Amino acid sequence: MYKTKRFSAISLFSRFLSVGVINTAIHWLSFFALTHFGHGQAQSNLIAFIIAVTFSFFANGKFTFKTNVSLGRYITFTTFMGALAYSFGSIADFWELHELVTLVLFSGTSLVVGFLFSKYVVFKEV
Q1: Per-residue b/e over 66-82, b at no fewer than 16 CB within 10 Å?
Q2: Phi, psi (degrees; rounded to nearest 5) at 70
Q3: What is the DSSP letter of 65?
Q4: Which of 6, 49, 76, 88 is most solvent-facing, going by the fewest CB within 10 Å?
Q5: Whole-prediction pTM
């Protein structure tokens, strides 16, 4: 039984990672477009996140966790992860970090934190 649970967790994370690759591309392209047009990193990171999270939420709900999606789950996920995105952008603005540093740090952190939050809170089996 241990091997089944471990394989299941690895398989689940692999599907989450697959969706995350597309989500990251959407996020990064949106972020660079917004900063190019003069928005600060905090605002750009938050808006880019909201654009990408919509795809990610529905894809992960159906493909990764194979569960029902709902407005409540969407709001819970978006609020928590949006706060994380905005926080990273605010810190980057304060420290005047390069945009690429912001994206790399946020992407890595949101992959791990987003998976755990999705698995144990948003798409938790009741």
Answers
A1: eeebeeebbebbbebbb
A2: -145, 165
A3: S
A4: 6
A5: 0.76
